[in-house]
C-alpha cells in the first residue's frame, strides 16, 4: 500500500471522527452528563471507534486466516486499512484531549496514544507487522464495554441490572482481550526474537511493557470500583441488620 493511500485513509479517519463528535453534540445528552459535555462526546466518539474496530479486527482474521500464521509479512489491504483507520482515530483523540483537557488529567492516555501511533505508523509504512497490529486491536472488543461503562456512570446509571451485567462482561472481556492478548503478544515477540530487527523488537518490547503496566492498574481500578466496593457495602449492611 502506497504512502499516499496511508495518508488518505488516516486523514479520512481523522475527519470521520471529528464528524462523529459533531454529530454526538447534536444528540440529546443525559442531564447529569451536561456538567462535562466534552467528556461525554469524547467517550461516545471512542465508543464508535471501538465498535467499528472490534468487528473489523475479527473480520480481518476471518476473511484472511493466513495472517494468523505469519504476523510479520502476511496481511490484506483490508487489515492494512484497519490499522491506518485506527491511527487516524488516535491522532484525532490525541488532539481532542490536548485542546480540551488538562495535561495532569490526560498524560497517561496521551502517552498511550503516542506509543500506539508510533508503532502502528511504522507498521503501515513498512508493510510489516500489520497482523501483529491487528491482534493488538482485538482489545477494542473490551473497549466497547469499557466505554459503555463510562457512559452509564456519566448518565447516573451506575446501579441496576444493566450496569451490573455490563460490569461483568467488561471485566471478563478485559481479561480475555486485554491481559491475555498482551501476554500472548509478548510471548510471540520473545519466541520470534530472531525474526524481528533490533529496533522493532526494542520498540515492541517497550510498548508491551508500558501497555501491560497500564492495563494491570486499570484492571485493579475496575475491580475495586465495580466489585470490591459493592461487596464492602453489602457486608456493612449485613452487619447493621
TrEMBL record:
Main location: membrane
Protein keywords: Membrane, Transmembrane, Transmembrane helix
Transmembrane segment boundaries: 46-63, 75-92, 112-139, 199-223
GO cellular component: plasma membrane
Topology relative to the membrane: Multi-pass membrane protein
Keyword flag Nucleotide-binding: no
Pfam name, any one: TRAM_LAG1_CLN8
GO biological process: membrane assembly; phospholipid homeostasis; plasma membrane organization; regulation of membrane lipid distribution
Domain TLC, first and last residues per copy: 35-231
The UniProt record lists the keyword DNA damage: no
Entry's localization field: Membrane
Identification of the protein by name: TLC domain containing 2
Upper lineage: Eukaryota, Metazoa, Chordata, Craniata, Vertebrata
GN (gene name): TLCD2
